């Protein structure tokens, strides 16, 4: 179980084991990037044919059921969005949703006077002034809008699908209180992220990873990586611009001191791109070979042998291997994928498809004997 040592520090400590569930969180608010709004449901987040809200024309849903589920929040913002009458960036959409629904995020980290630079302050000022004017709000609402924007800026999670592709932003609690450390890339590194996070549709899931050291007399602070950017300088720039700090974890100090070569990590990224290119060209045998190399290398980039995204990549290998009639390999990848995914995705349609495919693979193997 999670144990909060000192709530005033807004940190979480635990006596957890490796690869154990820490928490599951539902979003306080979630919005999609512009390019995904028309082909992905704004509530269940599934890719689908959608219909937009006829009044505000800002939110899209795959079904009446999802629209009704989201109405609890959307009913309080719909008229204001209609009055604005233009497509808005996701940071403005999530601001309006939180403000109009009076979502309590006062205890979230972020202070207008301390935690943002002048350029960001001016952006937030202009946005708050615009909303106050268009919604005919009282002047005291301005300060609240400013405060919410700072907390959004410093606490949002970028939401991704099972392949790790990002499509929106969301606020989650208590996951927002987990501090950042980078993912371990060397055995020498100790002060690093000891938890992994991933998404099951709307739900954020946090588990401990390979770097969690169980010590009954010394609870560890639970930390996640805010952005798994491989290049040291790019990672530091991202953390500074988005979250307002420079990371001083063991990995960053090591890379800063040693000027660590990024060749291996760059090669891994190239392999992933090559795999997608080969798939598009329908060169499936070569793509399968590259995919197997990617799966072998993935655990060190997540510092987690059991990260579900590895399971979903194994699911791809299962599907492609079955198509190529590599039945034994397809069976092995299916079994491994099910083991990694079942604790978190047993109701997921793609997981059910994987389980069904394994039955078909076993039947095919039996027929060929």
Describe this structure in words.
- With 369 residues, this protein is an alpha+beta fold.
- It has a domain of 106 residues: Tetratricopeptide repeat domain (Serine Threonine Protein Phosphatase 5, Tetratricopeptide repeat, Alpha Horseshoe), CATH 1.25.40.
- 47% of the residues lie in helices and 13% in strands.
- The strands form five sheets. A three-stranded antiparallel β-sheet has the order 1-2-12, with no helix packed on it. The chain has a three-stranded antiparallel β-sheet with strand order 3-11-10, with no helix packed on it.
- α4 packs across α5.
- It is globular, with a radius of gyration of 22 Å.
- About 1% of the residues have low confidence.
- Keywords: Metal-binding, Zinc, Zinc-finger.
- One of its GO terms (cellular component) is nucleus.
Salient structural properties:
three-stranded antiparallel sheet; 369 residues; 13% strand; 12 helices; single chain; alpha+beta; Serine Threonine Protein Phosphatase 5, Tetratricopeptide repeat; 13 strands
What is the secondary structure topology, with strand pairs?
Layout (H helix, E strand, L loop, with lengths): L1 E2 L9 E2 L6 E5 L1 E6 L18 E2 L7 E2 L2 H11 L3 H7 L5 H11 L17 H17 L5 H16 L1 E4 L5 E7 L6 E2 L14 E6 L2 E6 L11 E2 L1 E2 L7 H12 L6 H9 L4 H18 L3 H19 L5 H16 L3 H19 L3 H20 L1
Low confidence ranges: 4-8
What is the average of the pLDDT values? 89
Ends: how far apart? 49 Å
Strand composition percent: 5-15%
Shape: globular
From the 3D coordinates, which CATH architecture of the domain at 263-368 would you assign?
Alpha Horseshoe
Spatial order of strands in the largest sheet: 1-2-12
Count of helix runs:
12
User: Could you estimate the helical fraction of the residues in percent?
Assistant: 40-55%
Domain MYND-type: 41-78
Keywords: Metal-binding, Zinc, Zinc-finger
GO molecular function, one term: zinc ion binding
Protein name: MYND-type domain-containing protein
